[in-house]
Amino acid sequence: MPVLELTTLIPNRTPEFVLDFCLEGLSFPKIFPERVTLLSDLDLSNLRIEAGRQLRFCHWMFNLIPANWTVVIREVGDHHFIDEMLKGPMAEYRHEHRVEAAQGGTLYTDRVTYKVIGGALVEWLLVNGYMRRVFAARHRNMLKLLG
Questions:
Q1: In the CATH scheme, what architecture does the domain 3-146 have?
Q2: Distance from CA of residue 17 to its chain's centroid?
Q3: pLDDT tens profile 95-146
Q4: Please, are residues 101 and 114 in contact by the beta-carbon 8 Å criterion?
Q5: Cα 142 to Cα 110: distance, rounded to the nearest angstrom
Q6: pTM of the shown model
Q7: Is 52 helix (H, G, I), strand (E, B) or coil?
Q8: Where are the domains of the chain?
Q9: CA quadruple 96, 9, 63, 43: dihedral sign
């Protein structure tokens, strides 16, 4: 299974601040580099990410192709949280968000483990590059919003 890991220094922010930002519902569409639409009646302004919470949303790939996801928050800790796909466009998907104190700020890390429907050739031809592009854009968004 492919593993994508990307770490960015968020300057002048504490790990607690960065994680708190990520756990706020309104931050979800701001961080995500492509359009997302909630598929439930959740109010993002009152949403706090917590263990056990399920989220249903449509991720518009390339802002054009709809892909419906259902994810569950498996774990929330002092320096991380983990979400996993229950239903969606991948065979498997696990996303770890971690924060860590560093000189001058906080290291924010996304670690994604995934397996696509269609196997290794589809991963190599279509998905791996797309995933790298999406997560690089997520990190640019984090820097714009928090840097």
A1: 2-Layer Sandwich (3.30)
A2: 17
A3: 999 999 999 999 999 999 999 998 888 899 889 999 999 999 999 999 999 9
A4: no
A5: 11
A6: 0.93
A7: coil
A8: 3-146
A9: positive
